[in-house]
Design goal:
- Pfam families: AAA (PF00004), AAA_lid_3 (PF17862).
- Keywords: Membrane, Transmembrane, Transmembrane helix.
- The chain is of the alpha/beta class and 608 residues long.
- The chain folds into four domains: 3-114; 145-252, Signal recognition particle alu RNA binding heterodimer, srp9/1, CATH 3.30.720; 291-479, Rossmann fold (3-Layer(aba) Sandwich); 485-604, Helicase, Ruva Protein, domain 3 (Orthogonal Bundle), CATH 1.10.8.
- Helix content is 56%, strand content 11%.
- The chain has a six-stranded mixed β-sheet. Strands 1-4-3-2-5 form a five-stranded mixed β-sheet. Strands 12-13 form a two-stranded antiparallel sheet.
- The longest helix is centred in the N-terminal third of the chain and has 28 residues, at 87-114.
Length: 608
């Protein structure tokens, strides 16, 4: 091992020991030296395993391998012997470590949520509401306010029984206290104090004091002043009552403010939530997530030319070195053009599944938003997710330590590209233009080393912007058209794999393919499904040719047609097709036009 490799290995060992100290700060120096010595004996591949296990903390298997290796290094046991005799000890250490890591992760996540600005705002709002409610409904200490009529108040004033009167400002409220109740309260309180003084001299001081109850405080009365009583002040002066003006109660003001805030802001909470989700890009639009496609080219039929073009791109992704020797580069984008239902989305999924790379599928309409700037942000999020998925796929392939790691690949499929990629300047939709500009920037921003391949599908290529179609963005344009008779037969074979039929399945497929000119893959899949439903409706467990022909009739002309000249003609044409299909299944085929819109002429031939 040369000096450079030795320094690299020692640096990696130092990193591993530092991470082990984070997990177990109590490792003695003697054990640390022993671990370092044993780590030096490990190969580069094993050292990379330990380093990745301590650094990424991703899977239980990696932690299990790490713990077994560390216990073997510390105690000097043989690895096989350790596997036979110390399973429980390794399992306990593994569970303890995983439990600690789980608690730490949950604690970090909880603290991050609590100390985020949203958490602090919610905490402050709840604290303010709790304090306001507590102050607003806190009862006054032993003071009871009793509402009385204004006439009762005047009677007490004439009796000179009113001691204090408080006029509340900015309202008609009058608070007053009665003289006789106040005197009675004082007398009872003085009597209680004298009783306590006498009892305090005895040895039953504590127990008796607890039985002595304080007298209730006098009540405070509330009434409302009647407008027009101009002699109230004179009556109060004559009665000898003390009166004054007091500001409004702070509790009443707080109640009013709290109720006002609730009445105004609570109905606006749904609007705030909706606006926040729109601004944060979470409103009803699901975020694109990379996943592995289970569809391959074996599931696609009838579009052999398009499959051949895409297979070349797949071979490039599988064997990049072969193409790079000649200076070839991975195409940045492939545009699939064709009418609806021809299988453009299925081709994109099959391409990703055949190459074994992550697949992201979005619709271009998800980029269009009512808020300016949100569409461009969605495009940035999509390509950031694609780059991360490409990097992760490169990590899963597991390049050898020390060897240059090959870049991964991720396929991004954008359906209905014309929704966002239309020609600029033809409309006043500024948001769509900004989204398109961001898409063009992203496609120019990544290179072939990042491994992001963009597939797009559209059935309106003539409306796309010229800057989007130039080489360097969409390097390859593949037309996916309606299949011919052989293509329709191959598509029917794919959809009829698990469909039980009466007779020769190949003959039925040829017959149905010959009587369905102009049908695309989606139409043929619907024909097979309708035929199966017709067989189930009749209580049969197998599907007949008549079911397929009736399904063709339903798909072509619809269901539940009314009577009329046109409808009678359509029904007659459908009966002729079913009759023709029956003849084909018994040994006939169509001649002329290849079965794709040309003249349909029955011609009897012998089938091998």
């Amino acid at each position: 091992m040369d000096s450079a490799d030795y320094k690299v290995q020692q640096s990696r060992i130092d990193t591993i020991l530092a991470r082990l100290h984070e997990l177990d700060p109590g490792i003695p120096s003697v054990e640390e030296a022993a671990i370092r010595a044993d780590l030096n004996t490990l190969s580069a591949e094993h050292l990379s395993l330990v380093e990745n296990s301590t650094g990424k903390n991703r899977t239980i298997s990696s932690w299990s391998a790490l713990l077994k290796r560390l216990i073997a290094l510390k105690e000097g046991d043989d690895a096989q012997r350790l596997g036979r005799h110390d399973h429980r000890r390794v399992w306990l250490a593994e569970q303890r470590l995983l439990k600690t890591l789980g608690w730490a992760a949950r604690l970090r996540e909880t603290l991050a949520r609590l100390f985020s600005w949203q958490g602090l705002v919610l905490f402050g709002a709840f604290l303010l509401a709790a304090v306001s409610i507590n102050l607003a409904w806190r009862p006054q200490a032993k003071i009871v306010t009793k509402p009385v009529q204004y006439s009762t108040f005047l009677q007490e004033v004439e009796k000179k029984n009113v001691k204090v009167v408080n006029f509340e400002e900015q309202s008609r409220k009058i608070y007053f206290a009665l003289r006789d109740e106040d005197e009675a309260f004082r007398a009872q309180r003085e009597a209680g104090q004298e009783k306590k003084d006498i009892i305090d001299k005895g040895f039953l001081k504590i127990s008796v004091e607890r039985t002595v109850a304080s007298p209730p405080r006098p009540a405070r009365y509330l009434t409302r002043r009647v407008e027009g009583d101009m002699k109230l002040i004179e009556k109060l002066q004559a009665s000898g009552a003390a009166f004054r003006s007091v500001p409004p109660s702070s509790l009443d003001g707080m109640r009013t403010a709290l109720f006002t805030m609730v009445a105004i802001y609570v109905p606006l909470i749904p609007l705030f939530i909706f606006a926040r989700r729109q601004l944060m890009g979470r409103a009803t639009k699901k975020r694109a997530r990379a996943h592995d496609s289970a569809v391959t080219f074996r599931d696609v039929a009838g579009v052999d030319q398009a499959k051949q073009e895409l297979m070349e791109v797949v071979q490039f992704m599988k064997n990049k070195g072969k193409y790079r020797k000649l200076g070839a580069k991975l195409p940045k984008g492939v545009l699939l053009v064709g009418p609806p239902g021809t299988g453009k989305t299925l081709l994109a999924r099959a391409m990703a599944g055949e190459a074994g790379v992550p697949f992201l599928s979005v619709s271009a309409s998800e980029f269009v938003e009512m808020f300016v700037g949100r569409g461009a942000a969605r495009v940035r999020e999509l390509f950031a997710e694609a780059r991360a998925a490409a990097a992760e796929s490169a990590g899963r392939r597991g390049a050898r330590p020390g060897a240059p790691r090959e870049a991964g690949t991720c396929v991004v499929f954008i359906d209905e590209l014309d929704a966002v990629g239309g020609k600029r300047g033809l409309s006043s939709n500024e948001e769509r233009d900004q989204t398109l500009n961001q898409l063009l920037t992203e496609m120019d921003g990544f290179d072939a080393e990042e491994g992001v391949l963009v597939l797009a599908a559209t059935n309106r290529a003539e409306v796309l912007d010229a800057g989007l179609l130039r080489p360097g963005r969409f390097d390859r344009k593949v037309f996916v058209g309606a299949p011919d008779a052989e293509g329709r037969q191959a598509i029917l074979a794919v959809h009829m794999r698990t469909t039980p039929v009466v007779g020769d399945k190949g003959a039925i497929q040829r017959a149905v393919a010959r009587v369905t000119p102009g049908f695309v893959g989606a139409d043929l899949a619907n024909v097979v499904n309708e035929a199966t439903l017709l067989a189930i409706r009749d209580g049969r467990e197998v599907v007949q040719l008549d079911d397929f022909l009736e399904a063709v009739d339903r798909s072509r002309f619809g269901i539940g047609r009314r009577k009329g000249p046109i409808q009678n003609l359509q029904q007659g044409f459908g009966r002729w097709l079913r009759k023709l299909g029956g003849e084909l299944s018994e040994g006939t085929e169509l001649a002329g036009g290849g079965g794709d819109g040309g003249p349909i002429v029955p011609k009897a031939v012998t089938m091998n």
